[in-house]
Design a protein that fits this description.
The protein has about 500 residues and is α+β, with helices and mostly antiparallel strands. The chain folds into 2 domains: about 240 residues, Beta-lactamase (3-Layer(aba) Sandwich), CATH 3.40.710.10; about 140 residues, no CATH class. It has a 9-stranded antiparallel sheet, with helices on both faces. It has a two-stranded antiparallel ribbon with strand order 4-7. It has a two-stranded antiparallel sheet with strand order 5-6. Strand 9 and strand 10 form a beta hairpin.
């Protein structure tokens, strides 16, 4: 068979045959795990770049574990499109919430050493409580934080120090809970989180390329994160338009009923200013100062470009004679139907700009706005695919914890909705007799996924440097494991 024919056959096998197998028994299909390793590598070498092109993902790293051993570690695409640097085995990806699993293991090792307790209030041995409510301090335990039932929020940019529901009463994702846990760990050990993680997790498990805090040397290996322009504009202009419409209604009502007059052109200025200010506050609240400066700057720059395109379109309409009063027609004020021409120019500008919405642009970091670099359990974790594969192996074979603690890792899982549960270290998906364990990481410009099949002692890690990489990661995991599932909470 020719090389081109072999590639087509492998791609057809990856894309089509798994779908037919899912109709019978997903686990019986086995996915790529049942393939010879050289065929798996060739198929991934075709399948992953094809999907990267479809989802516009610049760089990907994949590691596959089979029967407790790493059988594949591959890299694809570019770590930085600007300097054409390829993804290498040493490339560090932002992995977001995957760092929560690392922090959970560090906390459980402290439980083994009797420095923390699973069901005692986390504030028990603190000189200065972190939570602002006395009842919260007395109720929130380590178990609550690890199983995402603490009642604390998920806005890590502006973490609230109060619970939103009774701890332990129900499931609710909480990045703030892990910020609180980081505070407790650092107070009890007297060491920063990155040092604790190195001594209790990274070192014992051989994770030599994982970091909560980058040094100037390791920073050179970090992949540049990318995000689609359309996402950034949606984040800014959805709250802008909501506020704009609300303010226009208020101004119209005041003008019509309080002052008995129609809206004048200058009256539209204040709703625009108010909508812009409202959108800025929403973005700052949700993403933090540094990311907000990036998002707002891009949104306003795009607005300026669209305004210039609209002005140019209006000028062209003027040239052809559409945007001016016609000879022989007496007009008062603006030319009759002028607003139609303005709307037409705006529509032309938006239509001309719309292809740019699919562009992937690099996420600016603005380190000066972030202050002194600090480890953050919710957002600052960087790692490689082989390191996460070693972490998966440890989770499936038993991390360096006491037997009693290891037996509780998944036995104490709580319902998280539908087929999902949450354990002390990862999420769990149960489909009939099949159980997979997973963790998804998401930060602005990066998506990652780690899925384990404990029955087969197998799993896959996918790290990407694009917000568009989430569906790509799910697609790779489904084909590798031979399971038709989604590992992401609804």
């Amino acid at each position: 068979m020719r090389a081109g024919g072999l590639q087509a056959f492998l791609l057809l096998t990856v894309l089509v045959l798994p779908q037919a197998a899912y109709a019978d028994d997903p686990r019986a299909a086995g996915g790529m795990l049942g393939w010879p390793q050289d065929e798996m590598a060739r198929a991934l070498g075709i399948f992953v770049p094809d999907r990267m092109k479809q989802f516009d993902v610049p760089g990907v790293a994949v590691a596959i574990v089979e029967k407790g051993a790493i059988v594949y570690a591959g890299t694809f695409g570019k770590a930085d499109k600007g300097d054409e640097g390829p993804v290498t085995p040493d490339t560090l990806f932002q992995a977001g919430e995957l760092g929560q699993t690392v922090e959970a293991l560090a906390a459980l090792s402290l439980v083994d050493d009797k420095l923390m307790f699973l069901d005692a209030p986390l504030s028990r041995d603190l000189d200065t409580p972190w939570l602002t409510d006395r009842d919260d301090n007395a109720q929130v335990t380590l178990r609550h934080v690890l199983t995402q039932t603490s009642g604390l929020g998920n806005n890590v940019a502006h973490p609230s120090r109060r619970t939103g529901f009774d701890p332990g009463s129900r499931f609710g994702r909480s990045g703030v809970g892990f910020i609180y846990l980081q505070y407790v760990i650092e107070r009890l050990t007297g060491e920063p989180l990155d040092v604790v993680a190195q001594s209790r997790v990274f070192g014992p498990l051989g994770l030599t390329q994982s970091h909560f805090l980058l040094t100037p040397e390791t920073q050179a290996f970090e992949a540049q994160a990318y995000v689609r322009l359309g996402f950034l504009l949606t984040v800014f202009y959805v709250p802008f338009l909501a506020a704009l419409v609300g303010l226009l209604v208020v101004f119209w009502a005041l003008s019509r009923f309080a002052f008995q007059r129609c809206l004048e052109p200058l009256d539209y200025l204040w709703p625009v200013v108010g909508g812009t200010a409202f959108a800025m506050v929403i973005v700052w609240w949700g993403f933090g100062l540094a990311s907000a400066v990036f998002i707002i700057g891009v949104a306003l720059a795009c607005a300026a470009v669209i305004a210039m395109l609209a002005g140019f379109a209006y000028y062209l309409l003027y040239i052809v004679g559409l945007a001016r009063a016609r000879d022989g027609i007496i007009t008062r004020g603006g030319a009759g139907g002028e607003w139609i021409i303005v709307v037409l120019a705006g529509a032309i500008a938006l239509g001309g700009f719309s292809p740019a919405l699919k562009w992937s642009i690099p996420v600016a970091q603005f380190d000066a706005l972030r202050g002194v670099p600090q480890a953050n359990a919710a957002t600052s974790f960087r790692t490689t695919a082989p390191d996460m594969a070693r972490l998966m192996i440890a989770l499936m074979d038993g991390p360096p914890l006491t037997r009693a603690t290891r037996e509780r890792l998944y036995a104490d899982s709580v319902p998280a909705g539908g087929p999902f549960f949450w354990s002390l270290v990862t999420g769990v998906r149960r489909d009939g007799m099949a159980e997979t364990r997973w963790m998804r990481g998401s930060v602005l410009g990066s998506e990652s996924l780690m899925v384990m099949d404990p029955e087969r002692r197998s799993g896959v890690v996918i790290l990407t440097n694009s917000r568009s990489g989430g569906e790509l990661a799910q697609d790779i995991a489904r084909n590798v494991l031979g399971l038709e599932a989604v590992w992401s909470l609804p």
